[in-house]
Amino acid sequence: QGPLVESGGGSVQAGGSLRIACAGSGDTYYRHDISWFRQDPGQVREFVAGISFGGKRTYYADSVKGRFTISRVDAKKTVYLQMNDLKPEDTATYYCAACSGGHCSVIPDVNVWGKGTLVIISS
What we know:
The protein is mostly beta strands. It has one helix spanning 26-29; strands spanning 4-7, 10-13, 18-24, 33-39, 46-51, 58-60, 68-73, 78-83, 92-99, 112-113, 117-122. 3% of the residues lie in helices and 48% in strands. Strand 5 and strand 6 form a beta hairpin. The relative contact order is 0.32.
């Protein structure tokens, strides 16, 4: 499996929106659930959102339901996370993850990690 490359991180004011992206190579992107996790310094890494191969199934952490939307565009081999109504507690490094086992919501299931993209929510 190939690398995952995140992009789109940055700083945004609370209440604003941001879209981050995870681009993968073919052997990583296909037949994998792709998920986003996030982690602040000194905090545990937590699951944010995931999407199945083909996009028929999506799943979210309770803290982001109704605010974040995950999608995938196969032509670009890219998974997007649209983040709306951002809150200061959303500040974290966001990591893209790929799982081959059919779901991707817990760390032991992750086969490939991206390097992360930093998202800072300012008041």
